[in-house]
Amino acid sequence: MPYRFGERHAGESKASLREAIRYLMLLWQLRLSDQTRRFVRFAAVGASGLGVNTLALLAFAEIQGLHYLVAAALATQVSTLWLYLLTESFVFRGRAGTRGPLARMGLYFGMNNAALLFRGPLMYALTSVFGIFYVASNLISLLALTALRFAVADTWIWDATRRSRRAAAPALYNIHDIVTVRSTVPLPELEQFRVEALDGPPTIDVRTQARRPHRVTAERHFQYDERLGVFGFWIDVSLGDLIDVVASPLLARSPHVLYTNVVEPILRWTFVQRGYALIHGACIAYDDHAYLVTARTDTGKTTTVLRMLDRQRRESATAAFISDDLTLVTSEGTVLTYPKPLTISKHTVSALNRPALTRRERLGLPIQSRIHSRGGRRFAFLLTRSRLPVATINALAQWLVPPPKYPVQRLIPQVKLAREARLEGLFVIERGADDEFRLDPDEMLDILMSNCEDAYGFPPYPAIRGHLLQANGQDLSVVERQIVQRALAGVPGRLIRSSSMDWAQRIPALISAPAPSREPLPGGLAIDGAVPEPGTGG
């Protein structure tokens, strides 16, 4: 609202430089959130800590003659004490939360020493590989973790809402009346299946706690532990009529990792026991006819499906969304929706007409896309060859910078949704020289099963896969293949290679072209062994 200053008729103006500064400070407080102001104070305290850390580093390295990595570890103890005192009295003053001062100090020291697991390799690479002076390497490693350390301090060590979150009711999910999940940590990927109550005990019970449970009677039981305690990634799983999953507190802060790397692999093989296969493929329905689109991870499947849906919506066509990343199929050829949020990129958004994203979400997308891009995941898989705690690093990274995941309704407003349909075709998309050819049944099956395995593989999956595959004396990987094999019987399939990623134009044209539906094709597809009927519980 515009306003005008009136003319002064008496006295003197109280306007001064001091009042102007006060006015600007009030604007600053109104413009920024409490968390942003805390981060500014945290960064100011951290800047003083850089000086303390550097002086201590030089003292240990130059005066005492210690190796620069040992000196950095000792300097961390000195600067941590300095930083804790300032953080306690300046950054989080009056926000003690539910922990005492000694507990907060212990956690703060633990956080900074855990950070040495990442700072040490980074300093070594910068100093010993790239020849950067060790003092500069130390400063770079400290600055690189500033935002992460603030996130841990703000949401965990000095967390004032910790008690109220602990008392929150668990989230409940019912997936097509096939599998039910109860979780103390809300799982965004299952949000479309969330319910108010379950008819009975859950199939899978998920919770996080500080200590691993002591199991006495569990027959099928396994653990995965990166030996970092409450700061790291660990899970303890008991398999039975009730699948009990206990995870480290870190995973409560990183629900995407808890779901993707722990819950989803368990769900996959639990579905198989009940006669369903959770396959790696997107699915679009035209009326009651479903078409799968499968590809290796990071090929462009999500962008292709969104472009197809966006184009069909603008043309008032009948295309409906069933799922993007994973689709449930039965041996009879029925597909069921599995509407996880879609992981998008800046390129994906630019390909759509009007996605309903806020300005803040759009501004954060370039950073999120870079970290969670194909290159970022490739780098993460390279780390799995090292002895680093990769699952912990992944959880911390996704806590600090969550992946850009959004429900399809946010990306394509008014999109049509379908719960189930009859499988009528499969398209395999690949990058390469433009080409297209028909797939025989054996090729379709091999490609689809290979893509399913490609969707998994990040720790801890390689270590826990063997435990999940065995049930009632069966190899569930064989049962899964048989379910998919029967679902694909008589379904035509095509492989489409493209150098320009134009699958969104080519696939609808192939779907609209007249073709026989679900007629037997030449090839193998020999069905061996019994497959559980859907809903029988295996």
Main pleated-sheet profile: 9 strands, mixed
CA-CA gap between termini: 68 Å
Report Rg: 27 Å
Overall spatial form: globular
- Mean pLDDT across all amino acids: 85
Quaternary structure state of the chains depicted: single chain
As a percent range, the share of helical residues equals 40-55%
Poorly predicted runs: 516-528
Strand coverage percent: 15-25%
Number of strands: 20
- Please give the count of helices: 19
Q: Briefly note the structural class of the backbone.
A: alpha+beta
Short description:
The chain is an alpha+beta fold and 538 residues long. 47% of the residues lie in helices and 17% in strands.
Written description of the protein model:
The protein is of the alpha+beta class and 538 residues long. It has 19 helices and 20 strands. Strands 8, 9, 10, 11, 12, 13, 16, 17 and 20 form a nine-stranded mixed β-sheet that branches. It has a seven-stranded mixed β-sheet with strand order 3-1-2-4-7-6-5. Helix 4 runs antiparallel to helix 6 (146-157) and helix 9 (255-273) packs across helix 14. Residues 516-528 have low confidence and may be disordered.
